[in-house]
Each structure stands twice: as C-alpha cells, then as structure tokens.
Amino acid sequence: MVTAIIVAAGQGVRMGNSVFKQYLMLGDHPVLAHSLITFGLCGLVNNLYVVVPESDMDYCLQKIVRPLKLGIDIKLVSGGPQRQLSVYNGLRKIENKRGIVVIHDGVRPFVTPGLIQVCVQGAEETGACIPAVPVADTLKKVNSSGLVSQTVERKGVWQAQTPQAFAYELITRAHEKAMVDGFIASDDAFLVERLGGKVKIVTGGRNNFKITTPEDLRIARAMIAFDRMNEAIQELSDNHLI
C-alpha cells in the first residue's frame, strides 16, 4: 500500500503575489495540479491526501481536484502554520497505517513517475528514501554582517528534494518525537535522521525544482512552452509536413 501526501499549505511569501504560488497557472493547469496529475496517474499510489490552507479547501476541491478527474481517491486535509505540522496533519488523516508514505511538495511540478517509483522502492528496502542532487556550486557560510565566515566543502554534499518516501510507522514516530521536543526540521528526512534511521539517497533531477520565486515560475513556464514547441514540431514531422 502506497499513500501520498502532497503538501500545498504554504502562502508563498517570496513569490510576491496575491495568489498563493500553488494556484498560479503553469501551462493549462495550476502549479499544484501538475503534481496531482503525476501522482494520480503513475499507477503506484493507492490514496492521495492534499494538504492545503483550511480556507482554500472548497476552492481546491471545486477548481483543482474535481476538474482533473484522476480516478483515484483524493482527500483534502487542512494545513498547519508550518510545513512540518501540515505533513503531520496529513499523516494523522491516513486511514491505512501500513505500507509506504510518499511526501511531496506540491510546488515541485516536474516530478516524474520514475522518480516516485525509485523512492518507494528505496523506502521498502531501508524504511526511508529521498531524491537529491549533488551540489554543483561553491558553498559559502555567511555571518550576520553579510561577510563570508567559512567556505563549506561541497564534496559529498547533496541538495535534498521531494518526493520523500518512508515506512508509515517510522515517519509518524519521527514527527511525534519532534513535536515532543519542539524541534522543527527543514525536511521530513531530517526527523528520521534524529531517530537514528537510515535514509537512502537516490539521484533526483535538476528539473525537479521547487517553485519559490517569480524567476522559478518563469523558468517553469519556459520549460512548458519548450515542450509544447517540441511536440508541435514532432507532430509536423510525423505528418511529413516538415
């Protein structure tokens, strides 16, 4: 049994837009819808929980979930004031407490079925598996005065992504431990690491980026436009028109 939690409860402050970033249009669909389509049609996920701001639940149901007609059980969950609490809300709503839970940022629209599959397989082996890419740029640690205090060795440093897949019992226990300790992590895998759990890394993709800023959205829209252009050229070629 594989259950997915798509987290889309953020307000996107850095986007500088009155519309939350998960609802901004990307091609023919809102950003969030792209993730839902991939998870809904990948053939691996049995149940899908979408965590959104409480005030947006009816909007998401009427404007995003129902029009997609994905043919998979999708439940909406009210989000919390922080991402970590939103994920925990999703975990608590899951009815089947066995199997693998896949947690994904709803504003990573270019996730692929193949990446979901390898993360699920990795979690089945070790209990926890996440995608990541090696850091390519030089890393600088900066102090409060805006001065470089340290150059961080990038060898062996990877940039974590989602979807992150876990055994249900393990990730739930990790979240509950964090709540007791008052600990807030930047991703779910960190919570498992605090328990001493082994987290397997699989290679993610540079295109699997998180839309956070207006520049990210422009890049995403350019990628969609490029794909459409290639599809049009291929169709013309198949019809021997070029």
Written overview of the protein:
Strands 1, 4, 5, 6, 7, 10, 11 and 12 form an eight-stranded mixed sheet that branches. The mean pLDDT is about 90. Helix 3 (about 85-95) packs across helix 5. The protein is built from seven helices and twelve strands. The protein has one domain: Spore Coat Polysaccharide Biosynthesis Protein SpsA, Chain A (Alpha-Beta Complex), CATH 3.90.550. The chain has helices spanning about 30-40, 55-70, 85-95, 115-125, 170-180, 190-195, 215-240, and strands spanning about 1-5, 25, 30, 45-50, 75-80, 100-105, 130-135, 140, 150, 160, 165, 200-205.
Considering the chains and any ligands shown, give keywords for the structure.
242 residues, alpha/beta, Spore Coat Polysaccharide Biosynthesis Protein SpsA, Chain A, eight-stranded mixed β-sheet, two-stranded antiparallel ribbon, 12 strands, 39% helix, globular
Number of domains: 1
User: Under the CATH scheme, which class?
Assistant: Alpha Beta
**How is the CATH topology named?**
Spore Coat Polysaccharide Biosynthesis Protein SpsA, Chain A
Work out the helicity level.
25-40%
Q: Would you identify the CATH architecture?
A: Alpha-Beta Complex
Mean pLDDT across residues:
92
CATH superfamily: Spore Coat Polysaccharide Biosynthesis Protein SpsA, Chain A
> Structural class of the helix and strand makeup?
alpha/beta
